[in-house]
Design brief:
Belongs to the UPF0102 family. The protein is α+β, with helices and mostly antiparallel strands and 121 residues long. It is built from three helices and five strands; from the N terminus they run H-E-E-E-H-H-E-E.
């Protein structure tokens, strides 16, 4: 059996994160929204809040692990992609950016409101 490609692993971790969040009451709106500005792994609803979710996997904690991999530049790309999404699908609901960090054991750490638009400017 051949090992999974990088792309297939990414999809599997996104599915794992999606199930994790659905079990906690969030509702999936869209997966892998892509635009020129970047990509949003998961877009979900948490009550009346629209949540843009970045899924990160790291097998070990070298260099800070999965959470540290959401750099300022990555945050800026996520914000730009979210702005594009909201132009395409307007909403007056509050929005937030969450990160799901998955470690080598498959354990999820959920960082709600991991960053804000004003943090990345």
């Amino acid at each position: 059996m051949q090992p999974l490609s990088h792309f297939a692993k990414g999809l599997a971790y996104e599915q794992h994160a999606c199930l994790f969040l659905e079990q906690r009451g969030l509702e999936l709106i869209m997966r892998n929204y892509r635009c020129r500005a970047g990509e949003l792994d998961l877009i979900m609803r948490d009550g009346d809040t629209l949540v843009f979710i970045e899924v990160r996997y790291r097998a070990n904690h070298s260099f800070g692990g999965a959470t540290a991999s959401v750099t300022l530049r990555k945050q800026q790309r996520l914000i730009a992609a979210a702005q594009r999404y909201l132009q395409q699908y307007p909403s007056d609901d509050p929005c937030r950016f969450d990160v799901i960090a998955i470690n080598g054991n498959g354990q999820c750490t959920w960082l709600r409101s991991a960053f804000h638009v004003h943090d990345a400017n």
